[in-house]
Design goal:
Elements (H helix, E strand, L loop, with lengths): L4 H24 L1 H19 L6 E5 L5 H9 L5 E6 L2 H14 L4 E5 L12 E7 L8 H11 E12 L6 H12 L19 H10 L3 E9 L2 E3 L2 H11 L1 H8 L3 H15 L9 E3 L2 E8 L1
Parallel strand pairs: 1-2, 1-4, 2-3, 4-5
Antiparallel strand pairs: 5-9, 6-9, 7-8
Helix pairs in contact: 1-4, 1-8, 2-3, 6-10, 8-9
């Protein structure tokens, strides 16, 4: 069953608004976000076998890290289109590209489900940790297939099941256990909406992709301390930050204590934390 059109549009607008608000936190944490995501980004880039002169599209680029790796590999003569639906995120990516001295990057506001590019316009498409947030991931994948030239290559990543990603589930678990949040709708767009590898493979095949590969990828997340982990979560998760902001000070203290308790198995003697993480990487030919 599809999402009713009015509900779908509401979900899109709400999600876009969250990402516009989230950009400031992602800017502050850009270095950490890059480090956390690098194992997945590296795998994605390897799948594309890029060559000089190619045109690469990164969708939902956020700070742009994965695409910037591609931009280096398509020189000379090649171009990266770094895109996001949120203008504030595009601003972060522009600034980071300037810091890196990249001069072969175009920036464009694009939606996942209707990519404003001609058919067969690019040689490769990248999309890290975004398509599972789409209201209609099947439509997004069809659009990715449409803009790829014949023989082009797609590489994307989504999050694996919740049990393999305690870094993502612990903050919401604390809020739910304390009665300050409700469990998420399992049928709504969200981090784990495409955590079934078979479903992901099927969606790509139905969109017209061939030779689909889906692999689990380790994506651990480290923090200096439990309190640092909480602050990082504020910056990188608008859903958590908004719910937390609505609490009283005693309630916030209670949430912090519960998160620290749930983190206990992962805290080293020096107070630092390494939390397991797992993604699904997918690659396919157009």
């Amino acid at each position: 069953m599809g999402v009713p059109s009015d509900d779908a549009e509401t979900q899109r607008l709400e999600m876009l608004e969250r990402w516009e608000r989230a950009a400031a936190g992602w800017r502050r944490r850009a270095g950490q976000v890059r480090g956390w995501g690098m194992p997945v980004s590296s795998w994605m880039i390897e799948q594309l076998a890029l060559a000089p002169g190619q045109r690469v599209l990164e969708l939902a680029a956020g700070p742009g890290d994965t695409g910037f790796l591609a931009a280096e590999l398509v020189r000379p003569g090649g171009t990266l289109i770094s895109s996001d639906a949120a203008e504030a995120m595009l601003a972060v990516a522009r600034d980071r590209a300037a810091e890196l001295g990249l001069d072969n990057v175009e920036f464009k506001r694009l939606e996942l489900e209707w990519i404003d590019l001609p058919t067969a316009a690019v040689d490769a498409v990248l999309c890290r940790f975004a398509v599972m947030l789409s209201v209609d991931p099947a439509a997004a994948m069809r659009e990715m297939r449409r803009v790829l030239r014949p023989g082009g290559r797609l590489s994307l990543a989504v999050w694996d099941i919740p049990a393999r990603n305690p870094w993502a589930t612990i903050p919401s678990q604390a809020m739910i256990e304390l009665g300050y949040s409700s469990p998420p709708d399992p049928n709504a767009p969200g981090m784990f909406a495409l955590s079934d590898a078979a479903q992901l493979r099927e969606l790509l095949a139905e969109a017209g992709f061939v030779d689909v590969v889906v692999e689990p990828l380790e994506a651990p997340r480290s923090s200096a301390s439990a309190s640092a982990f909480v602050e990082e979560t504020f910056d990188c998760s608008q859903l958590f930050a908004s719910a937390f902001a609505a609490l009283s000070e005693p309630e916030r203290s209670e949430v912090r204590r519960r998160i620290t308790s749930l983190l206990e198995p992962y805290i080293a003697e020096d107070g630092s934390i390494v939390l397991p993480g797992s993604a699904l990487g997918a690659a396919a030919d157009a």
